[in-house]
């Protein structure tokens, strides 16, 4: 019985969105479940997928809050 946890920051995938949409979540659930079926032969009814949205201020990356890390990377690539 596989259990897959997907953690994403709470922000939209397009302008004007502030969270992952229900449609996007459904695609993630289907895609991950299909991978486990096709690669490990795990039946869909035995696979659990949990999506956790985390506020950006609770997400660190490279020793920095995620927004600060992104600004730093953007300024370095400019």
Automatic annotation (TrEMBL):
One of its GO terms (molecular function) is isomerase activity. It comes from the Bacteria. Keywords: Isomerase. It holds the Pfam family Tautomerase. Residues 2-66 form the 4-oxalocrotonate tautomerase-like domain. Its EC number is 5.3.2.-. The active site is at residue 2. Coiled coil: none annotated. NCBIfam families: taut. Belongs to the 4-oxalocrotonate tautomerase family. This is Tautomerase.
């Amino acid at each position: 019985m596989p259990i897959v946890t997907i953690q994403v920051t709470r922000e939209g995938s397009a302008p004007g969105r502030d969270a992952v949409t229900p449609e996007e979540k459904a695609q993630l659930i289907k895609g991950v479940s299909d991978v486990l079926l096709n690669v490990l032969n795990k039946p869909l009814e035995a696979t659990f997928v949990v999506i956790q949205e985390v506020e950006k201020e609770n997400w660190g990356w490279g020793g920095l809050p995620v927004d600060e890390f992104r600004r730093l990377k953007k300024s370095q690539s400019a």
